[in-house]
Structures are given as C-alpha cells and as structure tokens.
Amino acid sequence: MLDLIIKNGKVFIPEKGFLDLEVGIKDGKIVALENNLSDSKEVLDAAGNIVMPGVIDPHIHLGIFNDFAHECEHETRAALAGGVTTCGVFMGGDQSYLGQVGELIDVIEAKSSVDLFMHLAIFTEEQMSEMKSYYEKFGITSFKFYMAGVKGVFPNVSDGFIYEGFKKVAEFGDKAIACVHCEDQSLIDVAFDKVSAQTPEGTLVDWAKTGPDMAEEEAIIRACYLAEKAGNRLYIVHISTKDGADRLTKIKANEGARVFGETTSAYLTVNKHGEFGLKGKMLPPLRDKSDNDGLWDAVKNDTIDSLGTDNVSMTLEVKQEENGMLGAMPGYPILQTHFPAMINEGYHNRGIDIETIITKATINPAKIFGLYPQKGVIAVGSDADIVILDLDNSKTVESKNLFSYGDFSLFEGQTIKGWPTTVVKSGKIAFSNDEIMVEPGSGSFLKREL
C-alpha cells in the first residue's frame, strides 16, 4: 500500500516538461509515476495546480544574529511554508570546523523542518589543510572564499590563498565546488570611505554606492581566471549587478558549465528605491531597476544557473535602522517569500517561462551541489519533496503572519501571486492550509559523496 498519491495536477519534471501523471509515494520516496494509481493511505488532489519538486535554496545563513538552534527551528519552518524543502547553509569563522560541525549537525537533526547541507568558508591555513577531513567526516563538498570581507566581522582572503584553495577543490574532482563572494576589496574600501565621509546619514541609495558595480564585475573576472588555472568547478554567489551578469555571460561562452552563476530573489525583485528603506541594507547592496532587468535577462539566457536568498534573519531590534546607513545591520529574513516573489515578478509581471524559474530553483542547484537525483526532480527513487503550486494564489504579505521569527519583510503590504498550497516533505504533508503539519526535527542533514 502506498502512503500518499498526488493526482490531477500538472506534474513538472525539470528537463522533461509537464506531464499528466500521478505520483505514488511510500516511505519518503517517490515509487511510482503513472496513471490510475490506487491503494493508498492518503490521496492529495492537486487539480488545477502545478506539481513540482521541492525548492532548493542553496544559499542561506543561520546563527549570525541569533542562536543557531533558534534560527534552525524557526527559519526552516518559514522555508517550508514557501515551498523550500532543502537549503544550503554557509558557515564561517576563523577556527577549525572539526570540533564544531558535529554539534551543528546534531542541532539540525533535532530542530530543522527541511533538509540542510553545508558549505564551509575557508579563511585560514588550518581550515584549508582540513578540507579533506571536512569531507571525510561530514560529507561537505563545497567551500566558500571571500574576495571581500565584512568590516568588523571577518576579513577577505588574498588571490594567492584562494588559488591554493581552488587547487584543493580541484583535487577532490568534479563533484566538489568552490563558492566565491566576488567583490574587489580595494574598490569597496575606497568607495565606503568616500560615502561614509560624505553622507554618513545616507539612505539605501547612498549605501549602494559603497559597493560599486565594477567591484563585482572585476572580481568575477579574477575568480574565473583563478578557477581556470586551478581546474576546479566554480560557483559565484549572489550576483547583484547587470554588469557582473553580463561579464559572466562572456566568460561562460568560453568556460562553459564549469562556472555557475547564482543570484537571489531580492536582487531580482526589489531594489535600492524600495519603500522599506534601510531594512534593505545588505552586502552586496541592493542595486537599481536596470540591474533587476539585467539579472532577469541573465536568468533567461542561462548565465544565472541557480536562485538563492542569502537569507540573514533578524528582528527590527537587531536591524537598528534607526542608527542610520552605517549603523544598521546588513541582512533580512526572506525565505518564505523567496519562491512566490520570483513567480510573481518573473512569471506574472515579466512573462518568464515558469519552466525556467522552477528549473533554476530545483534541479540546477541539486546538480551543482551533488544532491541530484535524490533532490531537485520528481523521479522514481527520489526523495518525495514536492510542492503543489497555485499560480493564481494571491496573498498580501504581513510579517506577523510569516513563520520567520523576524518581524519585518521587504515585501510588507505587497500582494504576491503564486504561492504553494501544499508542501510534501519526505513523503508527508508538511504544510497545508497555511499551517505547518510537522514537528521541528523532521528534516535531516545531507552528507554528499565525491
């Protein structure tokens, strides 16, 4: 007997298209894709809606402004309600991770409502020497390097250091990947000093000037050159500018699929002129409408391969926008609105193919980060992480009704069209009728194989 049958929906299988099939689920896995399935404990009628793989957000942060366990519990429930069933968590610091990751995995298994995999930022020679151990002990195959740091938090690392790290990633083979924050530190430093001196009480428009567009574009050129020489696969996180995306288009014409580009739902859907003001302070900063347009073009032409959030949850008390441009903290909670906002802006407002958006939110990150075919696709043998998407489901965003512990949203008061009605996680109905149906700890930590 099956545990669950999903019927009457349009089943979207990335790279294959929309199919009239029923989905049979047992023991957390998809076991049948055919018609006229029967003999099941439960039946989910998806009539009129899209049946698609669970969204993978490959780029979130947990535990920056609050306890890791607290954020792991609350923010993964927000993710689940937005159709996100798997997340990649970036962790950083200047100490060895060998004594830390095991404890973090225990927290994930106890608190998370979605599946999580981990990327480790490499800042020190000790961490670099332990990269193989991070894989062997914890199944971590993706490592991050910062070409630009965050003032008062952590420094950037040199190109020489990055090149050595890239070579170690290359030694792991093509299932490992290096992630890079691409901004030139010196260009940012000069711009920050100038802006902070001239307009210390500035707006979000002024804040955007602290991260010049050319700083991102120039660093993309360098990162791709270093990866070409080292021979590793490269993932450029949170591309925020049209110039950066245009440059990557030119590079990918020569480098092909060994270089992958990510942007975030925020860089696609909001900009520095938003009514949210300094609540939108972020690194890299929100840009202009022309950058929104250029990034959507990059989604369409496959320069952008993957869609994330760079979620950094916090409350207004922590945000401190009352302290002005320099005093406000960077980051915002955005997990629950991530996928609906892209459907609203990309599909409804801009006419982007729904297939393109879903593909870059599911199967692409699964393949890039070594999770496919377990994740990112509806296929026999894959995990039964499935979203029932109603393209016409409209909701007005009110942060008090979101599952994040954060008390603000960049989309506050906006009506967004295209929300999940039901989310199936590991074969169980986990979200339905605006309610979370599973307990914290129903998610798992994902170890990856080389």
Automatic annotation (TrEMBL):
Q: Mind telling me which GO cellular component terms the entry cites? A: cytosol
- Which cofactors are required for activity? Zn(2+)
Where the record annotates domain Amidohydrolase-related, the positions are 50-429
A GO molecular function term, named singly, is:
hydrolase activity, acting on carbon-nitrogen (but not peptide) bonds, in cyclic amides
**Family annotation (Pfam families):** Amidohydro_1
Official protein name in the record: Predicted hydantoinase
Protein's organism: Desulfobacula toluolica (strain DSM 7467 / Tol2)
Taxonomic placement = Bacteria, Pseudomonadati, Thermodesulfobacteriota, Desulfobacteria, Desulfobacterales
